[in-house]
Design brief:
Layout: E1 5-9, H1 15-22, E2 26-31, H2 35-52, H3 56-63, H4 69-74, H5 78-81, E3 84-85, H6 94-105, E4 112-115, H7 124-129, H8 142-153, E5 157-163, H9 173-184, E6 187-195, E7 206-214, H10 235-239, E8 250-251, H11 263-267, E9 280-281, H12 287-303, H13 366-372, H14 390-399, H15 403-418
Parallel strand pairs: 1-2, 1-4, 2-3, 4-5
Antiparallel strand pairs: 5-7, 6-7, 8-9
Helix pairs in contact: 1-15, 2-3
Amino acid sequence: MSKPTFIDLFAGAGGLSEGFIRAGFEPLAHVEMDKAACYTLKTRLCYHYLKGNRKFDTYISYLKGEIDRDKLYEKVPTEILDTVINLPISKESNPTIHRRIGKLLNKRKVDLIIGGPPCQAYSLAGRARDINNMVGDHRNYLYVHYAKYLERYRPKMFLFENVIGLKSAKNGSYLKNMRALFLKKGYEMKLFTVVAHKYGVLQNRRRVIILGWEKGKELNVPDLEVVSSVIKGKVSDLLSDLPQIAAGGGVDRSSSYATSTNNYLSESKIRNGLEVLTQHVARPHTEQDKKIYRIAIKKWTNEQERLNYNDLPEELKTHSNRDSFLDRFKVVGENEEHTQTVVAHIAKDGHYYIHPDIHQTRSLSVREAARLQSFSDDYYFEGVKKGTTRTPAFKQIGNAVPPLMAFIIAKSIKDSVYGI
């Protein structure tokens, strides 16, 4: 039996796609505007192709730094890499995207469309930071393009992922208009509020997932809110096997683990037998920030309390805002069952993601942030230029859908709708 197929719109680094691939779906195309994320998608497609064709040693050589990205891509058929389309979804680009997807389909049907547009337009934080409260931002209406893709490819189902703020943005009118538009295009929908830690992800990430299906079809649509993963762990499970590194330290390629794996890392597939550690690199910090980090770590370790910015010594207070974001320096609690949500702001600074070990006094490394999002250690995040991955990697990780959550959702769709 052939695998059900999907197109991933606004694909990012491929967290959502990775979950669907792992559940047995076949990607026909990924559409993404960020160039670095497109390289990440291509590298991951190399992983799947080489693993599936018993050529995995080539991918391991890449992780070890023995071959470069160009050499890796030479080992994979061009038609596989061409499924990544580096263009923005827009009125101007859509004709080109459709032509390229048309060539890729080769008369195959699209079973699902998955993805979610950039969330700044709907997020509470995005609205708070924008002087115009995101009014008039073109990203508010990217769902209109999404609906046009539904109209063109007529999938059996779709999955639309976004932030909780979608429910309240513009007093709920965006969501109301979205529902009406999808119905006009021939699709009913149901909205679910999902929490990542219920899916085994060690993070308090709350998101909206909309499942849609062809109007009039009787599908056994799964209830995504009734879920409890058997994969359990604590945040310490994500950190304990990694070598200690200082701020600004670490090795991008071919590092080694400090200890063997544990149950959580194995069951979640974060560590899956490959003994090559990559991207365990941390950003540098100023001496002032490290002083603040030590205060925050001691307060958390000794009192299990978060640092309030106003409680810092006066000489360490450099922010003029003393009324909001008072928890801007936040330790990742290693004894907790889940930690704070990883967001794209981690690419700008690590103050909200301080490692709990005072001997390291730094924010999370790229690999630690990826683990919080449940990405496996063999998932490599690319930059546009070779060897410059830290900042683009953090951005991609913060924007991603956790692959473990995506896998459980995809599996429930496959079981309920396809019965396979």
